[in-house]
Amino acid sequence: MVSVTAxxxxxxxxxxxxxTFERNDMRMVISRLVVGGGVLVLVLAAAxxxxxxxxxxxxxxxxxxxxGTAKPAAAQNPEIAAAIARFQARDVEGALKxxxxxxxxxxxxxxxxxxxxxxxxxxNLAAGTRACLEKATFETPDDPEAYLYLGDMAVREGRxxxxxxxxxxxxxxxxxFTKSAKRKKAMRPMVCGGLASVAEAHGDWRSxxxxxxxxxxLDPNNGVxxxxxxxxxxxxxxxxxxxxxLRRAAKGNPEAMLPxxxxxxxxxxxxxxxxxxxxxxxxxxxxxxxxKIRLMAAQWAFQxxxxxxxxxxxxxxxxxxPKSLGVKVLSGLVALFQKDYDTAEMYxxxxxxxxxxxxxxxxxxxxxxxxxxxEAKKQKALEYAAANVRQFRNRADAxxxxxxxxxxxxxxxxxxxxxxxxxxxxxxxxxTKFYLARLSVDRxxxxxxxxxxxxxxxxKGPFLQRQEAQSLWQQLAK
Length: 478
Hints:
Number of strands: 2
Strand content: under 5%
Strand order of the largest sheet: 1-2
Distance between the termini: 31 Å
Radius of gyration: 26 Å
Oligomer: single chain
Helix content: 55-70%
Largest sheet: 2 strands, antiparallel
């Protein structure tokens, strides 16, 4: 099922950044790393399609800042501004020269290659980011920052052992780092957070707690560190300690989740549904007008198959915030599972108009429309499904929905080809298996249909076509 969910700051001083790289088809070739003069040469080959990138702010470029801290004030650095302009023009070497000049003048600035890596990172160009950081470890081997960012990348990519070695190297370098007291102070929480991430990944909650407590001695009110420390305390069976840290983290942050609701999430993730429900009830009692908690309650009920409770909580959330995209999508989803296709259409259409690029709204709108008798609505379903495939061509659920809409329109040959793409990639969810089972029955392949249905019906959690699958299975079993 599609998750129901909710950048970079705007550019200071009116600088604009819009590189034209296509996110999916972009092919970046790092053709050579030239050591002569310490210059990194990157040859970028971009596809013709345009990627609209978020602007890069001078205010947060060339700064060492751990996660969860406020962004620094605008740098007002002419070399940085000029480097951004050069990078925008794809003159990477020219940008690097300007960054080197800026770093040379300001001892509190990271190495030039690290700043260039920040530019690549803010443009979602991972290969360029990594290449610059690797180069930084060669050119400035005594500077910890490149190791910190490489460690962070390794954690996010699941390379935990490598991340641990990188953070340990950064820690060792930082202990004897004397170039900039300001940077050293800023990087210490980054080291603590990184080492804590490695410990968390290994389930070593005690070691993670020690690192986070050091971080909090440096920044006692850091919300990110407090939330992570709460998780560590919970994992060590200290629910009261976890609640205390969550309350501290929530102080002064109106957007923070109610601490009782977060504890409920902890218990749910741990598989303790009894305590999860107990704490969710406490959260609802403490904050009955909190939309986030109502939405959480609706999602949990939906995932558990309690559509009545899911509808009640979604209705309560809708009264509190009728403009919420997440509330509209979840309300539509509950209606869709209840086979109330008119209501589902209403919610999904409203969500789609509010956020035309939201996949869930458009995908479910197609499913709600195609189940209705009105032929005009079925054609609209085809339009939405086809558009979704064009926009989200790598999503198996987009392709699956398109195949089902074709099937419902009686275009079986096309439906079989489309659904075959999903099957060949091995990415079939329960609904896709049902679609293929229906198609198999129409083609006289009852044995294939039974196998698909048997697999689909073993699926736990929400399955839109479960009743239809059960009925078809019983029909074939006669």
